[in-house]
Amino acid sequence: MNYESTRGSMIKKTGAQAIVQGIAEDKGLYVPECIPALPSEIKDMVGKSYKEIAYEIIGAFFDDFTKEEMDYCINGAYDEKFTASDVVELKEAGGAHFLELYHGKTAAFKDMALSILPYLMTTSMKKEGVRDKVCILTATSGDTGKAALEGFADVEGTEIIVFYPTGGVSQVQERQMVSQEGANTHVFAIRGNFDDAQSGVKKIFNDDDFAAQLAAKGVKLSSANSINVGRLVPQVAYYVYSYVKLVERGVLECGQPMNVVVPTGNFGNILAAYYAKEMGVPINKFICASNDNKVLTDFINTGVYDIRPETRGFRCTNSPSMDILISSNLERLLYLLSGRDGQAVKEWMEKLDKEKVYEVSEPVCEALNGFFGGFSTENDTLSTISRMWAENGYLMDTHTAVAYKVYQDYLAQTGDKTPTVIASTASAYKFAESVASAIGIGSCEDGFAYVSALAETTGVAVPYGLRDLDKKPVLHTGVVDAAAMADAVMGALK
Ligand SMILES: *Cc1c(COP(=O)(O)O)cnc(C)c1O
Hints:
The protein has 21 helices and 16 strands. By secondary structure, the chain is α/β, with parallel strands linked by helices. The protein has a domain at 89-107 and 232-430: Rossmann fold. Helix 17 crosses helix 19. Residues 108, 110, 143, 226, 263-269, 321-322, 399, 425-426 line the site of pyridoxal-5'-phosphate.
């Protein structure tokens, strides 16, 4: 299985090369040259564990890894760091199946991919004979940063640098990051929003002079953002797993379709679901849920991707991990929907960069019919949390609530009774203040006090990664302008 760029350069790479490099030479994203079929039939996967299914799925994409190498990666990643009975949980509530992906170290779904990425990365470095140190550059809207820091802390041969938007993350998320231990970890707040952070990181990646300066120091850049295909592929596994579980539980018969709802920011998670369908998992509808930053809702409905400031401004919402206007992984979907037309994708992406708007072709627009786009306002998100808690005793975080709200809108519009899996992307405790206020807890002193109050009121256990956060010392205090990110990287690597 080789990897090619979404922007048409047609240079082929192995999986290991694509993982180490992160982003293609022509600025495109790596995608598998064809999406592999499921390596075994669904009925034969019934009864298998998460690790067994992950081994099959990830192994199908990265077939340049030996059995020993893949075993090492899977076993290192999906161990007792995950407190769920089988890495993830699939729970029924309010007429939907919630795929809880947040039982790892940092209490967000990012752990699913970022627990394995360091293993895939270091194994790839070995396979490729990379002697340079690999510096992982990461922009985060809050959850990727901590998950990447935990994954790469003190991993030999790597440095990890994280940029997060000041004021754009919850207090719990911020403390998780700035209290990170590990000699190779670096965390900076930037003056700007997530898009500024992500654009800054992409700019650094595309700066050949900068790369040459780093090379002279024996350093090579790579990415832990979902632009890295090593982030995307592990996420495909849990959609296959959830289908298998629904069959196992008799909710579905083999071959019957399910719907998938994903609270979406950078489009990585929902794209993984799309890959699962391309592999052969019967998926009927991809329901793409946004918050007030509803670029994707509008795009799915019109075929026009529009982030011009006169059309919309960037909004900070109570689901901050989805406060994004430039959804990087959409590029990978457009590549597939356009019949792998790298030239067209390149033109759209360059238009987005320069004119802040592009319109896809008619056939791509039609292919978007497999998606339903909807959004939830901040108030709707809070009332959705409140109702679910009152009626079903099920506690959702703000992102999952966005998804559930959009699912209800979808049901009202379509009456579609297909069994539905909702990607539940974070523990409610990561956004304790919003969730607490949604269920009627009065005001508390700070974000940490909300965690305690929420635990007291709901009796839901606080994830181990979030306990006693307020007592953890702040180790990273750097704040930089978005324009000074390259200098910060250079300084960190001294
Ligand atoms: C990152 C994140 C999302 C968005 O996922 P994408 O793959 O970027 O679309 C949604 N919810 C939470 C809690 C997240 O951390």
